[in-house]
Amino acid sequence: MKQGLYIIAENFRVAKDLYKMTLLGDTSAISAPGQFVNIKLDGFYLRRPMSVHHYDSNTLTVIYKIVGEGTRALSTMERGASLDLLTGLGNGFSTDRSGTRPVLIGGGSGIPPLYQLCLKLKNEGKKPSVILGFNTEADMFCIDEFARIAYEVRVCTADGSFGEKGLVTDVLRDMDGYTYIYACGPEAMLHAIYDASPIGGQFSFEERMGCGFGACMGCTCKTKYGSKRICKDGPVLEKEEIVW
Amino acid sequence: MVNTKVNLCGLELDNPVIPASGTFGYGEEFSALYDINILGSFSFKGTTKEPRFGNPTPRIAECSAGMLNSVGLQNPGIDEVVQSILPKMQTYFHKPVIANIGGFSVEEYAECAEKAAAAENVGWIEVNISCPNVHGGGLSFGTSPKAAAEVTKAVKSVCQKPVIMKLSPNVTDIAEMASACEQAGADGISLINTLMGMRIDLKKRKPILANKTGGFSGPAVFPVALRMVYEVYEAVKIPIIGMGGVQSAQDVMEMILAGATAVQVGAANLREPMICKTIIEELPRLMGSLGISDLSEIRGAAHS
After folding, report:
1. Of residues B60, B218, B272, nearest to A209 (C-beta)
2. Which of A9, A28, A95, B25 has the fewest CB atoms below 10 angstroms from its CB?
3. Which chain A residue shows the shortest CA-CA distance from B57?
4. Residue B140: which pLDDT band, with cuts at 50, 70 and 90?
């Protein structure tokens, strides 16, 4: 974990209520895809945790949804402004057990952290398939970015306005030969994926956080291996340890 | 050269700044950010006799200038703390630590305190009789002077180390609570724990916290905390640790002027993990600019 100041290089709308922000600064504390940053906002007491969509040696990108006044204020910040971040938070995804044909499943605002993961898997010579689920066409984002790096991308919308009509689990049931599952999205989606496939995997969870770095015990969940802090011991849990 | 040292119940602190229980874990996460040996001490996560998961989530809700928590004393239990965590703590924190203990009966408080006090690196026992987030314990001992006195006596009878009673602001007369603890043998008083609060989700039309209510902390509570420290200083002779919304060296100074010997910093650690370091670095400068050479010169000065 590191604390530092970051300069906004871009902050723009990519879909309905969804913004993409690239920040310039020290990314050395980030060690795995699926980790998150915690952003301090003037006028709001708690930091806003956001998963990292992509990072390199001196930039990091987050894609965030406007869910309240804090994220709304963030969406109005302009290029050149600075933000105080805690970086390198959480455990992130591990690619050790992915096998050669992992499938990455993202729902809505849970999609962003899968991008860096997909890049990593590709660079390891694996063939990641990606399932992206949205409510409707107006919510869609990131599809072209995934199309450039994934072995295959399948898009579904709940209302059928784009791609396959249905849920990510409908698409998953239609797939075979995959070796591992990575998932991030609403808890109901994660639960449905968990039930839909016997294949092992890693699931990234969300919870209201106080600190974001393991001090306050605000985001603890139960697992088969005892209590875990979503912010510090997660947000990624192994499928076999999850308790619903 | 200014002197920031203070004496807390017979043990000297390099400075009066102490991260508050529940906002600092067992110190390990913060030691990754800065050398926590610069602290006066810290009060570790409230620990009970048995391990506790705590309350269901959501346990956190944001407020204007503060936050609610309903963690509910999640901890691994005193045996695990004494056997594993405290020995490990000695590798990254080399000063005496404050053992914050909770309980659900007088006997449990005593047993927990006795075990904690036996640990080499525990300097003080801070007895939490003020947790608003657990039922059938905690706060129920902190709202009755008689029950608070009973817990104080029981803990004192098994502890050789200084016993500090941590009080709740959710009472009619905080001075009466403090006096009851002092008369029962307490070596110090710390206050305030969080204020009971609630937030409601407009869309779900239900409280945000799964526990419905939670403890309110953050800068919004500072004036309430300061007033209560002031009142308790007039009622007792034993040292006071002031806390509640402290987030700057100026706040620390106000607490000391109100009568505090040491000052705990709570919720601010969650927003600004390096806040205690910042305060400790700022304190000598502030003392210099105010013409204060030793904090004991000004303790309680606001009363005369």
Report:
1. B60
2. A28
3. A219
4. confident
Q: In terms of residue numbers, what domain contains A56? A: 2-89
Q: Count CB neighbours of B200 within 10 A.
A: 12
The answer to whether residue A170 is domain-embedded is yes
Locate B98 and state its tokens: 């404050």
Task: State yes or no: pLDDT of A125 exceeds 80.
Answer: yes
Tell me what ipTM this predicted complex has: 0.93
**For chain A, what is the domain count?**
2
Which amino acid would we find at residue A79?
Answer: R
Task: Provide the shortest C-alpha distance from residue A217 to chain B (in Å).
Answer: 7
Is the alpha carbon torsion for B274, B276, B277, B279 positive or negative? positive
pLDDT tens profile B175-232: 999 999 999 999 999 999 999 999 999 999 999 999 999 999 999 999 999 999 999 9
Domain count of chain B? 1
Residue B61 lies in a domain: no
CATH number, domain containing residue A63: 2.40.30.10
Residues A111 and A191 in one domain: yes
Beta strands in chain A (DSSP E): 2-15, 18-24, 36-40, 48-51, 54-55, 59-65, 82-89, 102-107, 129-134, 152-157, 164-165, 180-184, 201-204, 220-223, 226-229, 236-238
A contacts of B272 (beta carbons < 8 Å)? 40
B residues 9-68 lying closer than 8 A (beta carbon) to A: 22-25, 29-30, 32-33, 45, 53-54, 57-67
Q: Do residues B201 and B210 touch, judged by C-beta distance below 8 A?
A: no
Position B136 pLDDT exceeds 70: no
Residue B107 lies in a domain: yes
Asked if A104 is an interface residue toward chain B (Cβ–Cβ < 8 A), one would say: no
A225-234, B111-120, B138-147, B157-166: least confidently modelled range:
B138-147
CATH number of the domain within which B123 lies: 3.20.20.70
Residues A192 and A106 in one domain: yes
A112 and A184 inside one domain = yes
> Same domain for A134 and A155?
yes
Using DSSP, state whether A63 is helix, strand or coil.
strand
